[in-house]
């Protein structure tokens, strides 16, 4: 790495997280770029994304489908779908070592042991033809060399820990015999089997019933507290984020458009996209208010507008936005950790204050 | 037609998976017709190549016998078992050599192409008529007849079709018409199943419901809504099947159960040549190559058409 | 599992019953007197009259069917008029030869076909893949009687390393079993390849990668087992084509199996033996399909546990 990025510096000086400011980041992503080759052309799914994750903290990555949030997590795991997808630049430093320049075999050994992942759809993410005990136990057998019997016992223990009732009876069942919430608990058990330091949860509750969503989020929060893990929570649900995340990263069209501590971004959002998302959440205090959707449609990554990508949908857009691509910079009069990619960030925050 | 090729990523590159890759792009980010149409549609090269080969065979079958005279009963002892490239006693060139009674092999092969293609097409028409009728009517109306016919299809599918063909052919005796009947009986099932599946999916589509709501009669619905939707899969199946029908005809003839021994079909010629393997390798091999190239071409054509129009037929 | 086995068993019997009925039906639909057809050209009027009475040809068709089914259950297909022995016994005597050929071919096809298919999928869209795909497309559509003849020309007549026909040593087995295995092998290659490519983008394969498994541990248990499920069904169906192929291959290589008996009996119009041979091959096919179905149930718990 060629010295710390402006925004990591910014964060180190942040007063918002005094307890965590001491240690070096666990994970540091710098200027990550991922491209996908399609028949119609090359898509920049992730375009210069940078962020840090500190030990024990939860970072939420927010954005709609296609914003690049899932691809970012795939890049960290080293499982970008090949041959269509390709990491074309940047660094992913884990405990100081750049994963992108390491041999694939070495990175593979980190997967599951140091960095784990929970996927969106637990049904398709579990192998339909293998018993649950086998799929959980595989972690112990392949990484730790456990015998079949020991792995099975360890699997039962894990199932109990993630709250699957009658674990010993159900360890030999198949995924289709479980409910959606139970399947996601199994996925979580697999991810946490070897006590990873970082858990990436890619929309872990999206495919679940609303009633189960809260249970899964509580389980994740509890396990994180018990283990002292860091977590990257990828979601498009602002409501989920508010309760669990320390910091938030908003993505739009493959780029970071706003980042900062969670309360700060919620109360003083400095990017019109964040603003728009906030306005489209139902407000329980004023249920009669009409929701305001973001106008326009999500961007076509094959054909992005000049300048700011959000420009065509933005109420604040002016000529400057078409001419100049706004970089990520500190929002004036706000804490230094609060960055936004908008030429008129100050105006947007002022707007927000007015609205409140 | 357009909705069959709507998503280029699903019919992508030859043998690649038909599923879209699992990266998180919503549909509108996939290359679509609206933004930039893909330059060449999948399998265009294969389709062109295979159609060209098939066209050559059809031309040879139609015009060949007029150019090179073939007399099925002629015998010429001086011209027996001449190797490819020999001059015959009448001064003409035997490109592929002659057989055991001195008949020109090239002429014989072109006659064989005529028989193979005629039998193939006739069989497909017959099997198609039976299969489509059985697929459309019960498929559309449902009921006990539908269940019974599909069970019959199940039984026949789990029964080796060549065995059924051999048995029926053995009882009927060798003749061109019998071959067509036998092969049609053992091939209607595929048509019926594909048609039925297409009918069942189309029947539930909104535009069909809309047409019905507007007061269209059943016959109109079948003719204008249901059948057109079946065209593409049926054509694909027909292309895939014609190769195997031609192969089955040759196999039956080879076994003496297909066309009568007096006809110069490929199977008969190959079977005749077996008695002269040591002296005249060409009698069996060359018609076999002719047969193989035609069947492989139909195979390529069928695969390419299927990839383009209907990837979900893959396991037929 | 018990219910699943019972259902498959029932279906197998159902198919067998269907096959028997089709044979009965075809014999009645074909022009001519079934008794005359069955007894062959040299039968005298007394024999014909006797058989007509035995088959109940003067009685309603349903009674004829009853008599026929009774005989089939007792494996009684009458006598072979050529050999004056029981038709089924005559066919059964040749069964071991056919079984030897078929089993050798299937093993050969499985041992070569699966690895080639896996290699083609893992090297998808490379030169290796293209070569394998072209090879399998070609061998799948080559007429096997012609392949047999070419193999005889090359290895028996040309190189003179293998015998061209008959049965005896293991060398006799090589050419017929290779001929029989080729189309089956080609289908296996293609199905394994497409099956693997289909599951490689599935979520559970991504999960297996995220678990930090070695690529081999991702492909072999996780991807392959799912990929094989659809392959197995088609393999079962293709086994019928292989059994049909034995008829042709046994004829080409003068292999003394059931298929050759079938063809010879047809040319001598010995229909008692023809019926017996057809039913025996059909039964072999039904049994192997039953085995495949059970294997399918073993591989896919969703099928097994569905009830």
TrEMBL record, chain A:
Chief place where the protein resides: membrane
The protein's name in its UniProt record: ABC transporter ATP-binding protein
GO CC annotations on file: plasma membrane
Keyword presence, Hydrolase: no
Highest rank taxon of the organism: Bacteria
Keywords: ATP-binding, Cell membrane, Membrane, Nucleotide-binding, Transport
Residue span(s) of domain ABC transporter: 27-278
SUPFAM superfamilies attached to this UniProt entry: P-loop containing nucleoside triphosphate hydrolases
Residues of the signal peptide: none
Cellular localization per UniProt: Cell membrane
GO biological process, one term: peptide transport
Membrane association type: Peripheral membrane protein
Molecular function GO terms recorded: ATP binding; ATP hydrolysis activity
Entry's family note: Belongs to the ABC transporter superfamily.
InterPro entries, per database record: AAA+_ATPase, ABC_Ni/Peptide_Import, ABC_transporter-like_ATP-bd, ABC_transporter-like_CS, Oligopep_ABC_C, P-loop_NTPase
From TrEMBL, chain B:
Bilayer-spanning residue ranges: 47-68, 115-141, 161-186, 226-248, 281-305
Pfam family name, one: BPD_transp_1
Membrane topology category: Multi-pass membrane protein
GO cellular component, one term: plasma membrane
InterPro entries xref list: BP-dependent_transpt_permease (IPR050366), MetI-like (IPR000515), MetI-like_sf (IPR035906)
Entry-linked CDD domains: TM_PBP2
Gene Ontology terms: biological process: transmembrane transport
Sequence segments annotated as region (Disordered): 1-43
Record has Cell membrane as a keyword: yes
Subcellular location: Cell membrane
Keyword entries, A-Z: Cell membrane, Membrane, Transmembrane, Transmembrane helix, Transport
Domain ABC transmembrane type-1: 113-302
Similarity comment: Belongs to the binding-protein-dependent transport system permease family.
Protein name: ABC transporter permease
Species in which this protein is naturally found: Phytoactinopolyspora halotolerans
UniProtKB/TrEMBL annotation, chain C:
Sample GO molecular function, one term: dipeptide transmembrane transporter activity
Spans through the membrane: 9-30, 101-122, 134-156, 168-189, 227-253, 273-299
Localization per record: Cell membrane
GO cellular component: plasma membrane
InterPro entries membership: BPD_transp_1_N, MetI-like, MetI-like_sf, Opp2B
Membrane disposition: Multi-pass membrane protein
Main location: membrane
Organism domain of life: Bacteria
Domain ABC transmembrane type-1: from-to ranges: 95-292
Keywords: Cell membrane, Ion transport, Membrane, Nickel, Nickel transport, Transmembrane, Transmembrane helix, Transport
Quaternary structure (record): The complex is composed of two ATP-binding proteins (NikD and NikE), two transmembrane proteins (NikB and NikC) and a solute-binding protein (NikA).
UniProt similarity note: Belongs to the binding-protein-dependent transport system permease family. OppBC subfamily.
Protein name: Nickel import system permease protein NikB
Species this chain originates from: Phytoactinopolyspora halotolerans
């Amino acid at each position: 790495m060629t010295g710390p990025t402006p925004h990591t510096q910014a964060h180190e000086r942040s007063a918002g997280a005094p307890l965590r400011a001491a240690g070096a980041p666990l994970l540091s992503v710098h200027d990550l770029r991922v491209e996908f080759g399609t028949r119609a052309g090359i898509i920049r799914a992730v375009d210069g994304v940078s962020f840090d994750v500190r030990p024990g903290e939860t970072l939420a990555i927010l954005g709609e489908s296609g914003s690049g949030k899932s691809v970012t997590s795939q890049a960290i795991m080293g499982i970008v779908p090949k041959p269509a997808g390709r990491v074309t630049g940047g660094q992913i430093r884990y405990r100081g070592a750049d994963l992108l320049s390491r041999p694939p075999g070495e990175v593979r050994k980190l997967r599951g042991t140091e960095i784990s992942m929970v996927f969106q759809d637990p049904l398709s993410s579990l192998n339909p033809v293998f018993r649950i005990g086998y799929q959980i136990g595989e972690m112990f057998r392949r990484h730790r060399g456990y015998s079949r019997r020991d792995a099975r016992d360890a699997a039962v223990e894990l199932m109990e820990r993630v709250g699957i009732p009658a674990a010993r009876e159900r360890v030999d069942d198949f995924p289709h015999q479980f409910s959606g919430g139970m399947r996601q608990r199994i996925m979580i058990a697999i991810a946490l089997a070897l006590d990873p330091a970082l858990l990436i949860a890619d929309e872990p509750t999206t495919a679940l019933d609303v009633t189960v969503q809260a249970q899964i989020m509580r389980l994740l929060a509890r396990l994180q507290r018990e283990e002292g893990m860091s977590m990257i929570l990828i979601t498009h649900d602002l409501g989920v984020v508010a309760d669990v995340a320390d910091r938030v990263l908003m993505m739009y069209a493959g780029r970071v458009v706003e980042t900062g501590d969670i309360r700060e971004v919620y109360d003083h959002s400095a990017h019109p996209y964040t603003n728009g998302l906030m306005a489209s959440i139902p407000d329980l205090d004023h249920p009669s208010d009409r929701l305001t959707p973001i106008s326009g449609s999500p961007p076509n990554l094959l054909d992005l507008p000049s300048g700011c990508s959000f420009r065509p949908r933005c109420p604040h857009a002016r000529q400057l936005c078409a001419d100049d691509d706004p970089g990520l910079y500190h929002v004036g009069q706000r804490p230094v950790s609060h960055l936004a990619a908008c030429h008129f960030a100050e105006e947007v925050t002022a707007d927000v204050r007015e609205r409140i | 037609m357009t909705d069959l090729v709507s998503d280029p990523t699903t019919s992508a590159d030859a043998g690649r998976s038909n599923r879209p890759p699992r990266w998180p792009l919503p549909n509108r980010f996939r290359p679509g017709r609206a933004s930039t149409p893909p330059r060449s549609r999948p399998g265009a090269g294969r389709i062109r190549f295979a159609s060209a080969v098939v066209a050559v065979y059809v031309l040879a079958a139609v015009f060949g016998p007029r150019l090179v005279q073939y007399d099925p009963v002629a015998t010429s002892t001086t011209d027996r078992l001449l190797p490819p490239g020999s001059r015959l006693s009448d001064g003409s060139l035997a490109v592929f050599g002659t057989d055991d009674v001195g008949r020109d092999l090239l002429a014989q092969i072109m006659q064989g192409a005529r028989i193979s293609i005629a039998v193939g097409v006739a069989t497909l028409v017959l099997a198609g008529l039976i299969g489509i009728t059985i697929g459309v009517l019960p498929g559309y109306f449902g009921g006990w007849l539908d269940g019974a016919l599909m069970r019959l299809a199940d039984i026949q599918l789990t029964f080796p079709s060549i065995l059924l063909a051999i048995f029926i052919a053995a009882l009927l005796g060798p003749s061109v018409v019998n071959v067509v009947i036998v092969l049609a009986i053992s091939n209607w099932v595929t048509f019926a199943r594909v048609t039925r599946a297409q009918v069942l999916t189309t029947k539930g589509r909104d535009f069909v419901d809309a047409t019905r709501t507007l007061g269209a009669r059943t016959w109109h619905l079948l003719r204008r809504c249901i059948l057109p939707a079946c065209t593409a899969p049926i054509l694909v199946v027909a292309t895939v099947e014609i190769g195997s029908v031609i192969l089955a005809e040759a196999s039956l003839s080879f076994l003496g159960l297909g066309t009568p021994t007096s006809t110069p079909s490929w199977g008969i010629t190959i079977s005749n040549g077996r008695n002269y393997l040591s002296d005249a390798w060409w009698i069996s091999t060359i018609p076999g190559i002719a047969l193989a190239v035609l069947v492989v071409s139909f195979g390529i054509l069928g695969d390419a058409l299927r990839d383009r129009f209907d990837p979900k037929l893959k396991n037929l | 599992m018990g219910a699943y086995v019972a259902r498959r068993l029932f279906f197998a019997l159902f198919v067998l019953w269907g096959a028997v009925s089709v044979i009965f039906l075809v014999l009645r639909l074909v022009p001519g007197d079934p008794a005359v057809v069955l007894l062959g050209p040299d039968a005298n009027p007394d024999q014909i009259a006797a058989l007509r009475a035995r088959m109940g040809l003067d009685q309603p068709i349903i009674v004829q069917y009853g008599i026929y089914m009774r005989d089939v259950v007792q494996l009684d297909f009458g006598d072979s008029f050529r050999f004056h022995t029981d038709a089924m016994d005559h066919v059964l005597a040749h069964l071991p030869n056919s079984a030897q050929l078929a089993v050798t071919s299937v093993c050969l096809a499985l041992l070569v076909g699966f690895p080639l298919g896996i290699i083609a999928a893992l090297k998808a869209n490379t030169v290796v893949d293209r070569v394998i795909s072209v090879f399998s497309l070609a061998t799948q559509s080559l007429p096997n009687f012609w392949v047999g003849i070419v193999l005889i020309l090359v290895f028996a007549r040309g190189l003179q390393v293998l015998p061209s026909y008959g049965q005896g040593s293991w060398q006799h087995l090589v050419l017929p079993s290779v001929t029989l295995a080729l189309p089956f092998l080609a289908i296996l290659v293609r199905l394994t390849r497409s099956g693997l490519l289909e599951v490689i983008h599935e979520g559970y394969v991504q999960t297996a990668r995220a678990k930090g498994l070695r690529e081999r541990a991702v492909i072999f248990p996780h991807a392959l087992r799912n990929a094989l499920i659809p392959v197995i069904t088609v393999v079962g169906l293709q086994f019928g084509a292989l059994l049909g192929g034995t008829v042709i291959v046994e004829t080409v290589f003068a292999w003394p199996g059931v298929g050759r008996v079938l063809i010879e009996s047809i040319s001598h119009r010995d229909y008692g033996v023809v019926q017996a041979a057809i039913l025996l091959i059909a039964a072999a096919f039904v049994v192997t399909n039953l085995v495949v179905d059970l294997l399918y149930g073993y591989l896919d718990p969703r099928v097994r546990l569905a009830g």
